[in-house]
Specification:
This protein is mostly helical. The chain has eleven helices and two strands, in the order αααααααββαααα.
Length: 281
Amino acid sequence: MTYNYDSFLISTNSNQGALMIDYQSIVASFPESREENLRAIKRYSMTEVFFYRSSLWHHSLRVAFIVDAISGIATELLPGFDAKKAFVLALVHDDAEIITGDVQLGHKQVMSQEQLAEVERKELEAIDTLSSQFPRVVLWYEYRQLLLHAAHKDCIEAQLVSYADKVDAYSEAMHEVLGGNISGLRSVIGYVDTIRSIKQRYTLIAQLFERKDVPLLNIGLRTDMWRVHWKNYSHLNKPHTPESILMETEFSFYNSWRELVLKNLREEGMKILTEQIEGKH
């Protein structure tokens, strides 16, 4: 069956990605080993079985797509916001994990201050190492400085990328639960509090969250309670299919996330959303 991917319109009222940056041209400026290494690092290592476990490579792309989708609103509301910088930063924000490995949020939440300091030390060491191996400038931004911003969350763009990072993780967990893996529910619930605290702590992007009409900026479990009907969920709690993945759910932020994946990655996006790689009976 052939799907019209261009028919997916992101329901964010956010200029639907005003940048029009070709992410492929940006990643092509790096050695091929970077993509290979990011693809080899799998997400949600704390979860024993993750039906649709994705890689750090696809995670970074999705974060960039989320940033792009809300960049129009960010440009309007946040003085000094650099949309192109945010997009490139999103693409490289987890590069240090090529060396350190994926340090999941759940791990950090149970670490002592000494352990967290050690994680930060290793991340900074990894940044120095990668900066000597990869291009000094990406687009027109210094690569090392981008990674330092990602580590310290010390600019508007880095705070927006960090928020988008959590939105992607939350949506990933939601995708897992809706596809029948109830063990993903722990992450779904956990990310509600995480995203709520980010909205309070990231003061540089606080104005964004006044836009109540943008699903990607309003994350939570709440739905329109008048529309919660069993029939709306009858195609869920079972493996996703190319047909079911096109059906709207009552979680508007998840719909937007899913549409971004399909719109930007097309056939590859459909594959990562529907190809169950673990937990098969």
